[in-house]
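Two proteins follow. First one:
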Amino acid sequence: MSLGFTIPEKGSLDLLSLGAMVHRLDPGIIPFRKATRFDVHVSGGEFNVAANLSDCFKQRTGIATAMVNYPIGDLIAERVRAMGVRPFYKEFAHDGVRGPNMATVYSDQGLGVRAPVVFYNRCNEAAALMKPGDFDWKAIFGQGVRWFHSGGIFASLSETTAELAIEAMKAAKAAGAICSFDLNYREKLWKPQGGMKRAHEVLGAIVENVDVLVGNEEDLQKGLGVAGPEVTAKSKLDTSVFLGMIENVVKKFPKVKVVATTLREVHTTNHHTWSAVAWVNGKAVSAPTCELDVLDRVGGGDGFAAGFIYGLLSGADPEEAIRLGWAHGALMTTFPGDTTMATLDQVKAFASGGSARIQR
């Protein structure tokens, strides 16, 4: 099956992401209002994709992001190194009191009928201060980059981050890289920027440069303003709404050749039904459906994106790529934290019909 584009065969980096780094404070199943301790996870939607591709899929990846010279920045930079991701930092000095800061995300895990709760402190965030001209894209892409990735979370942070994302994508396209974008519409993040109307303007301008789009029907409607068909999904796993919107997506954004999303039916916080679907240059491909016992749902979508992109980068056909993304996203929910602890063998085994039987 033709993808509608050609991925460069070689490059010093298989993938470069542009986005914001955060640290997530996680008290486990205890709500924050009663928490006395928590774990720290280094994260960021765009970083997670690069980290997963590096650590699990053994790809050469990089992250262009903001870094602040204080202990939280040191903590985050250590995890970037540990995941094997090459950093391209716009560095900021910390004044010891007011910042600028590395963003904090607070997220408990919930349990059973109690859903996880996520909230943010992105006040005076260094990443929001990044702007066009902060990176020498000509030099970076001149080294050879096969794939460029960014997302809607980064684009929502400020007017200048959206402009930087467009600048980077245009440079990536000029250098021959494939561009992907995860819409990741977050109402809480867009509200201070002007809400859904502003999201339509910003994300629409970015997606004009995109080859591969990741997002579900809600992302497409709220993030891009794409009209949906008059069809009611029988369940969260019904692909008719998503596939029914694709005609409107490609009509509005003709450069988009692939649109992919996860499908998740949440029965309780710890029991999900999981699948995935993609539209690839005119044809639909679907992953199997499985039942998940979820430890930590954060990062599952980024896990899917990483596995799906790996499949395409490695020359797999779309049917295999969607299964790799589905399998890696499923495994991600069995680990604490936002980035992968899976091995490529585990992903391939699950994608090909493996089970949870003990491995000896």
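Second one, unrelated to the first:
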Amino acid sequence: MKFSASSADLLDALNTVKGAVPSKSTLPILECILFEQSEDGSALLLSATDLEISIVRRVPVQFASNGTTTPTRVAVPAKRLIDTLRALPDLPISFTADGDFEIQLETDQGHYKMVGHDGDDFPDLPEVDAAHTLSAEGALISDAINKTSFAVSKDALRPAMMGIYFQLDAENSRIVATDGHRLVKLDRPALQTDSEEVSFIVPEKATKLVSRILDDDALCTIGVSDGHVSFTIDDARVIARLIDETYPNYNAVIPDENDRHLVVNREALLNAVKRVGLYSSSMTNQIRLALSESEMTVSAEDIERSSEAEEVIRCEYDSESMEIGFNSEYLTEVLGNVDSEEVLFRLSSPNRAGIVVPNNTDDPDILMLIMPVMLNTYA
């Protein structure tokens, strides 16, 4: 294999696929990126996989004529190649791989040599025989991922909650994430036209890689098979093994009788929670919200470090006074993912889940739930 390309263009493509390269693997070839010539000979295909998630990127390059002993597929050590290209300025580069899989990079400034692996030993990437295919603007998919991924569980004992749940039909597209402490339910325009409902759970790592590649103006095509999902964006494709679990009944935990309403400026509360949260216990991150008709007191204390903080902000509250506790980090993430000037909290009691929604029509189809933490004042 021999081709020439811009070092910057090649590095950009490698940065796309490197997200699927494991940092350490019992299979050394997985720490490589597969270089192969496309069937029509007009482009280079770069592939990487950790056996759960795979990324393929197509790069236009200028191939030289192929000799009989020159491989058309070679696995190249990812880290050394990427580090080399990062250290180079943007300049033409020549890539050569011989029959012994020795790789040479040539530039006007010098040459660099490394040893690769036989590309035929690289694992085959899964074929997604899509039973469902749907398309959406990159901005819509990216927004859905960014607004839900923070609530994905890290608990390996609950694998179904370690991904983002897509529930799609011809009428509506619903994207859900929860870790048991927080829940995000996002409704968006339908992504598919057939009436058959399709639902699947995409691992969080895969959604983050998709989000990195997505451009707001690009079209994202999603293909869903029995065991895999693919996201195709321009010249890049992310393939992920679906989480084969039943997603919990999230509707069952969303309360419908929260009749205490609190309206507050989102940014004012967010900033207060960030500042006061610095003085909360490092074990619990607990902050206290004391609610009255026209103002809210946000407070925290850390007895072990003899520190405390308190701030008062304006609000509108339509019920009797109440104190409720939240994890400051969880509340910060919830408030940080609402796109509105004001937020509406629908509360019930200090030990029941609260609902957070925008207090306007900017994004009427997002609902967030956050569980409180117990305060000793009502334990």
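SUMMARY FIELD: The chain has a mean pLDDT of 91. The longest helix spans residues 266-277.
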